[in-house]
Here is the input.
Amino acid sequence: MNIIRRENEFAPIEIAPPSFLEFPRFRELWEYKGLLFFLIRRDIKLRFQQTVIGFLWIILQPLIQMSIFYVFLGVLVKVPTGNVPYHIFFLSAFIVWQLFSQIINLSALSLVGNIGIIIKCYFPRMVLPLSTVVSALIDFGISFLLLLLFLLIDNIYSLSFRYLLIPVLLVITTVFASGVGLLFGAMMVLFRDMKNLLGFILQIWMYLTPIMYPISIVPEKYQIIFYLNPLTALVDAYRWVFLRQGNLPRFDHLLISLVVATVLWFSGAIVFRSMENKIADVM
Here is the structure.
């Protein structure tokens, strides 16, 4: 399939064969911003259409997970969490993981799940995974309010300059997750079983990230292995903001997470760009 390119709305349309490696065309994405906003509204509307309790499902998922892990790890195993109750300790990291995994899953399924639109008309396919990011961020915002409620109840919350770090952490987390999602989204075009593999990888990834346990219980000589996972430094940073727990996150750890996230996003975008025009033929 050929790619349709248009430099501006007055220039003639040029039909050119796609190259194997090509960067996303940000100008073209901007021209289709109306479609992006439409897809965002559509996704949000369809999520809660014909549901019994609507957006409350967003709250139920972290609450159920928190309750399960609280019973097994907080009550029975008694995982050490310092002066922070285990349910808050877990929730402060789980809402980050929920954001991360949701962006990956939605981005990865964006091409395969919208084949009906793709085969009918041309538009930059990158708007499909980008539109899913907003839905995941809305879920994070609601879950964050739930966390603040628990912090207020347990008298842990205090307004401080630490919260100014949240937008930076959200950008790194979103870019990182979107890059992983774009890579798997491109591979799912050719290999449908990538969906099953992705679920397996995310399950292992969650256990290798200090969400349900503190990194301090890992022997110091093995902690470097955990910090090879960029999400470990991000979770530490979020907990430092939410719980006032630990020291200021190390700059080099956050820098590594930022660099890995950026490289991964551009790698995923390039691979996604190279595969997006083959989906109509493959499917």
Observations:
- The chain has one domain: 24-282.
- The two ends are 13 Å apart (CA to CA).
- The longest helix spans residues 127-153.
